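Progress note, sequence design subtask.
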């Protein structure tokens, strides 16, 4: 398994063996963090964070991860403060950043932009989200969270709720779940169903997939809720029609399994009522925190740093 200088663009580029290896190395990294708060594994290395779209978790957790590894970060958190506003292309921006850094994380609204960036970079490029397409590091921390809770992924019933059309986190997650033997249930408004290509790929792999437009979580081990992705709707009126399609509140949890967990990549708007936060089921804040060991492990792996 070769990791040095590897780009992390789509979860579909990774086999189950490779995904499981990242999860194992993330657990080792978390174990290290329990004993030493910081390390010098990435001393003298530079991470360039190129964020052309807003982010709280992905940008901050990559920054925190690099700093915990003893490295430093450069970059920008909006295209508005980069030379994109003067007309510079992604390709030119990435060529420049790759000359200034050892690893690049890029988030951009255009699908395929991270792949394009990787083709013009001398250093590893990590996709921090490209439009509605992929968010592979979110998926790795999602799987890490599930595995930490249940000690397995195979055999679970995973229910994905919300905007399944535009949500890149659910596209990546379900692509990854092609490699496991989980039962999947997709719950969304009719207008926001999971793309047919993803459903067909899952079915071709023999994965049991159910689809519904009714919120029912009673048979699920994992309830993975997503935000309706306002910024991706071509028609604002369409967003207004579906924005409150599902709200997971205490009432909606009726019959939920005792050991079920509720996840969300965050940010949330109104799809999970804050009254859920203090229940035994809520894992979304822990899930976001799990981004640190996972992203630390990824940074070290693509930089060929032994740990
Ligand atoms: N989950 C996630 O990608 O969050 P941010 O948009 O805040 O990075």
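Output:
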């Amino acid at each position: 398994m070769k990791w040095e200088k590897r780009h992390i663009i789509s979860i579909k580029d990774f086999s189950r063996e490779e995904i499981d290896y990242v999860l194992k190395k993330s657990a080792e990294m978390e174990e290290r963090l329990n004993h030493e708060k910081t390390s010098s594994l990435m001393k003298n290395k530079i991470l360039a964070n190129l964020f052309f779209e807003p982010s709280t978790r992905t940008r901050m957790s990559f920054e925190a991860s690099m700093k915990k590894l003893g490295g430093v970060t450069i970059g920008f958190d909006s295209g508005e403060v980069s030379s994109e506003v003067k007309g510079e292309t992604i390709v030119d921006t990435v060529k420049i950043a790759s000359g200034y850094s050892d690893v690049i994380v890029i988030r951009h609204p255009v699908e395929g932009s991270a792949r394009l960036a990787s083709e013009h970079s001398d250093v590893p490029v990590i996709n921090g989200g490209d439009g509605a397409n992929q968010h592979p590091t979110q998926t790795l921390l999602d799987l890490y969270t599930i595995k930490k809770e249940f000690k397995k992924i195979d055999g679970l019933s995973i229910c994905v709720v919300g905007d399944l059309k535009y949500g890149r986190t659910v596209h990546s997650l379900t692509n990854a779940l092609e490699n496991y033997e989980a039962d999947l249930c997709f719950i969304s408004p009719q207008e926001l169903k999971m793309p047919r290509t993803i459903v067909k790929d899952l079915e071709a792999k023999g994965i049991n997939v159910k689809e519904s437009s009714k919120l029912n979580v009673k048979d699920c081990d994992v309830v993975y809720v997503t935000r309706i992705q306002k910024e991706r709707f071509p028609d604002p009126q369409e967003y207004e029609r579906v924005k409150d399609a599902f709200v997971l509140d205490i009432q909606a949890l009726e019959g939920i399994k005792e050991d079920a967990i509720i996840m969300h990549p965050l940010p949330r708007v109104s799809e999970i009522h804050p009254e859920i936060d203090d229940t035994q089921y809520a894992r979304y804040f822990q899930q976001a925190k799990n981004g640190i060991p996972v992203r630390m492990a990824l940074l070290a792996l693509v930089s060929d740093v032994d740990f």
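The CA atoms of residues 223 and 290 lie 17 Å apart. Work on this subtask will continue into the next period as scheduled.
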